[in-house]
Amino acid sequence: MQTTGLHKLIELINLTESTYILRIEKKDMEFEAGQHILLGKADDNDQREYSIYSGTNDEYLEVLIKEVVDGSVSIHLKNLNPGDLLKVEGPLGFFGLSKDKIESGKFLFIASGTGIAPFHSMIKSNPNLNYNILHGIRTCNEAYGKEDYNSDRYIRCTSRDNGCDFEGRVTDYIQQNNFDSDTICYFCGNFKMIKEAMDLLESKGIPGSQLHAEVYF
Amino acid sequence: MKYHIVQLGCQMNISDGERVQKVLEDVGYVHTDNPESANLIGVIACSVRQKGIDKVYSMVNTWNKWKNNRNLITFVSGCVLPSDKEKFLKLFDMVFTMSQLPELPEMINHYGIVTPAGLMGNENIQVEQEFTDNSPQLGGFRINKAQIPSSSTLVEKKPEDIKEFWNIEPKYGSNVEAYIPIQNGCDKFCTFCAVPYTRGREVSRPSEEIMNEVKTLVEKGTKSITILGQNVNSYGYDKKGSEITFAQLLEKIGEYGNQSNKEFWIYFTSPHPRDMSDDVIEMVAKYKCLAKQIHLPVQSGDDKLLIKMNRNHSMLKYREIVSTIRRLIPEATLFTDIIVGFTGETEKEFENTMKIMEEFKYNMAYIAQYSPRPGATSSRWDDDVPKEVKKERFHRLTKELTKYSRKHNNDIIGKTLRVLVRGRDRKEGYLSALTEGRIVTRFASNDATLIGEFVDIKITSAASLSVEGELLKN
After folding, report:
1. Which of A38, B2, B199, B258 could tie A89 with a disulfide, CB 3.0–4.6 Å?
2. A215 — contact with chain B (CB < 8 Å)?
């Protein structure tokens, strides 16, 4: 059920200089992992859509935010203090796992940057999920919440750092590896990455009907 | 006292404007086409394109100059982004949402202008003791604006408060054709569109009210009714089972049509492919009064671009819908909306849109060259397809459209079709009409009594997007 209201900020967790998590009151909001909310300061007209980062069973709502230098929302949200009020509307959107596939499906999550947020929620909400994640980031320290994933299933693809799992873009990783044709793929983040990754996976035999995406930018 | 309304944008805005007019006329205002003679001027704004909003700014600046010489109240409503609302509050006397429309008489009343509305009780107006040059001058009063409950102090309305707005009986713009809103708002968040930010979330109007409005209009002799919603076929979803579905609503209207012994056509716009179910198409096929014309926006024929547009459906799904339409209603005409030159659209992606013209053989496509819509997600992305490329794609696609619409129109030459006469045609001695499939038609006649009536015509010639015929004796 969608709700609109003011929610208190519980905590602001800085992950990097420009990336942070907002942990806010959940109130009675129920959502499906993969959905998003509209979020803004209580006294501000501007709101933005943010994927929910927390699990469906968590007692709070979390969103993962990358500060946009010339943006009009993310910069202001970063200056909030615990107890401050946020305008929250949601849950919204249709990005999510097919219920009939959660138990038996083999999932590949492909994200760039903060596009990992909906997958974090899906994994936290479904502890027995059979998944692998390809996370496209520039440097290893952008591997937000890596401790929440099984290290065997989480592959950091870094474009400017050779200190972690795979040096190169997610599309390079896909090109160099094979995937079972029954893999269900979810993409989130940059459209260029999504488009290239989809084309590659289709060329490797994964049908288009098994590819699902949400574009951030 | 006279009012003038400027309506910008889509059918939803026209429908909203009909209710605004009714509220104004109920408090004694009389409509004028001439803004210069109006005491009250309102805009039903549209945020779909920046051009529309720029137009509002330009108009209000002119009207504010007129205020130096005469009494004038201005207001703006309709699709307004929160950021524009802030600016409009400084330029217009009143800014309100459609949910707040029932309070419009009170707002005008508080402004103290001497009108039938003002005379209903202006005891709250306090004449200012010491005037400044900036004090508002209204209806012969100079009043202290600080004492006026302005639109900024109106109680914030929730999306579901739109119900009060729907209870207002509209002043229909025509006795022959009418719009009925069945839903307000949008939950889809297509990246090119600002409606979710201007109208809020989807709220469905009670089906009982919709049925009452349909029946009232049909009894009054309305021949063509379009039921409106941003995503008309997700009607009822927000009620989580406590309201009927869109297909069930169509069924109710269809049953009423069968029992009424009246001839009328019901259209709906716009359905979203994501929520288009077979039972909606089955209802259109089953009931005579449900017009055999489907407007199914596609926006792009390329799967990847549909993802970027956040349309939440694939071309496979769209193909399945069209295939069901063709199977169950072979005579149906098919209309669509397409955007060319969307941010990042490659030639290959555009070619995929070209291909669907042949595949789906649309009778009409409303093709728009992409322009960033302020407030929409894609307005923060590069508008990187050059203007001349957009233009060229627009022309190529239009040419492709007319190839198939022309063929359809040629194929109906010699057939007898029922048409609804809408008025005089631009061609002297001709009347203009629409077929049930909304193909523009004209036929030679000077008989004005036919306007607003159904007649049979035999199609004699065809153009790309229209046909011509001969009136048959009934």
Report:
1. A38
2. yes
Q: List the single residue in B189, B308, B377 with the smallest CB-CB distance to A93.
A: B189
First to last CA, chain B: 46
Structure confidence by residue, pLDDT tens digits, B340-375: 999 999 999 999 999 999 999 999 999 999 999 888
ipTM attached to this prediction: 0.92
Q: Nearest-CA neighbor of B271 among B205, B336, B218, B204?
A: B336
Contact between B316 and A45 using a beta-carbon 8 Å cutoff: no
In the three-class reduction of DSSP (H, G, I as helix; E, B as strand; rest coil), residue B438 is classed as coil
Cα–Cα distance, B314 to B362 (Å, whole number): 18
Tokens 């109007």 label which residue?
B205
Measured in whole angstroms, the distance separating CA A150 from the mean position of its chain's CA atoms is: 16
DSSP tag of A70: T
- Among A162, A163, A133, CA closest to A145: A133
What is the number of residues in chain A? Answer: 217
Q: Tell me which DSSP letter residue B290 carries.
A: B
The answer, for A191 touching chain B at a CB cutoff of 8 Å, is yes
| pTM of the predicted model over 0.95 | no
Across the interface, do A94 and B312 touch by the CB < 8 Å criterion?
A: yes
* Burial (0-12, 13-18, 19+ Cβ within 10 Å), A116: buried
Query: Residue A64 carries which side chain, given as an amino acid letter?
Result: L
Cβ contact B177:B223 at 8 Å: yes
Secondary structure of residue A95 in the 3-state scheme: coil
Confidence of residue B258 (pLDDT cuts 50, 70, 90): very high
